[in-house]
């Protein structure tokens, strides 16, 4: 009975609502390791055509597929924005890492293929689409928050990870002793997660020594390494406090777009961000939407705002796309119905916001000089953006 009522309510809302805004963020596609996974590894940089840390052909394909999905859902489906890129409707930004910038380009290529008078070369189904970034060698609080200097967060995170690593040392001492011998590196609970890059090599068909697929006692080597990686990564985001430190600034950015829409101010139909697994983890943590799993390549969080055709109310839904095998998952919003009225959604997350870099630095325990310099830097970037946007 209640299930039928719920399904009817969802269908009723979908039929009687128009999608008016999308806020989306995705992880870049598959990439090469940042360096050799371990000292004795025989697979050098020549095994990776674009070099260490760079997007791979698999990653390009993954993000192109994501762009195709976005076009089908938001151009051909809901018609949130048109098939041609329009800077007044769509804004795309990436962190300054090459893999995030290239992933954004790949998504944009699939999302906005040239049609009609946008075709400039009949042999190419491609056109340039602007991708913004925070600029080289700058800390990116928005799209790479895990690289932002935050001493108070680092102290909490480091203490928690050390305790977790100590448990790993007790549980997997024999495994770490074996791995130390096989890899040529000193392996312990605090750094064993770095061996997860072996999995990247396997995905790309690179040869592996027999021990990688073996066991130490009753412990399977590679699955254990991957689970250690999962636990150590999620330890960075496993509390509201950590979620606010790392995800509060991005969450505030999204909430600001929602407020602009609610208040009738000029804003974008779609804001699209290309970033990193830690950025999605941080946002999920800040929003109370973690699922206990690592963020896969090209996974995306999709926040959709719909306007009721009956009473003009705005409501919010959040989806998570971490597989191509089924539609995105509808996420539960803590303390709110689904879809969630926009004002209630804003209230749910009010305490998790970090509104500016001054507030961020006060929270993190950074000195005032750092705060002032960073704010001036952001002001300069924002001024340049406004100048560009008004041209």
UniProtKB/TrEMBL annotation:
Keywords: Signal. It comes from Mesorhabditis belari. It catalyses: a phosphate monoester + H2O = an alcohol + phosphate. InterPro entries: Acid_Pase_AS (IPR033379), His_Pase_clade-2 (IPR000560), His_PPase_superfam (IPR029033), Histidine_acid_phosphatase (IPR050645). This is Acid phosphatase. Pfam families: His_Phos_2. GO terms for molecular function: acid phosphatase activity. Residues 1-17 form the signal peptide. PROSITE patterns: HIS_ACID_PHOSPHAT_1 (PS00616). Belongs to the histidine acid phosphatase family. It comes from the Eukaryota.
